[in-house]
Amino acid sequence: MMGIVETNRWLMDNNNPIEICKQLAKEFPKMSPNHIYQMLLQHGMYRDPSQAKKDAEVLVSDDIWREMKVIYQRFQRLWQGPDIPIYIFPMNAGGLFNRVTDKKSGLAFRNHIFLFVRPDISLKELTAVFIHEYHHVCRIAAVKKHENDFTLLDRMVMEGLAEHAVMTYLGKDYLANWTDLYSDEQLQLFWKKYLKENIHLKRIERKHDQLLLGKSPYPKMLGYTAGYFLVRQKKDLTVKKTFAISSEDFKLKE
Q1: What is the pLDDT of residues 94-117, one digit of tens each?
Q2: Helix, strand or coil for residue 236?
Q3: Cβ(85)–Cβ(112) below 8 Å
Q4: Which residues contact 217 (CB under 8 A, 6 or more apart)?
Q5: Which of 149, 141, 162 is nearest to 231 (CA)?
Q6: What residues does the DUF2268 domain cover (predicted)?
Q7: Are 187 and 239 in contact (CB under 8 A)?
């Protein structure tokens, strides 16, 4: 069984991020340690090694790695999901002019997950970020479609379904901040104005990420928040159904 990697030991031995990323080379054989770090930085990995050491000490004393093992085993059994490695690292604390309010962030691939967490994270927040990222892994395994072939609609629905799983197990208090940025009326308008004609864009097309992430001139987190809106329109959606259901089933009816 794979499960939780002992990144706590890595952090205590040598938490220089490039040295850490050298240990991740097997997951990204075509990338240099520096490129791996730049990618992880974008998703919340720590910048300051001295602060990361302090944060890691708190996370170790709070037994976060053991807690995560229990969470992982529970959902892997419940969802009959893939057995994959989970890498936990301290989250970037942000500077004076870069305040980050979230206590967790994550990044999922077909065969592994990264979780970035603050030292004051609660057990339910830790569960929420894991549910979201592991749902991605289970859906990627179930849909039988190569990730390079995913469309904007696929990505939007994937994010929406992952938060639907968080809602199911933990309730609305643990949903991501982006789930309630806009009203349903605004989201219906955004669907017609920005998304409806672009849902088949692939990731290699520049506009895909602009719409998904809501980069200027589009509304912030547009694709994510619209994805959760689309998922909410479907009633009687059990978590078990959400792994293999077609993204096309979530398109808004005229």
Answers
A1: 543 333 456 788 999 999 999 999
A2: coil
A3: yes
A4: none
A5: 162
A6: 64-249
A7: no
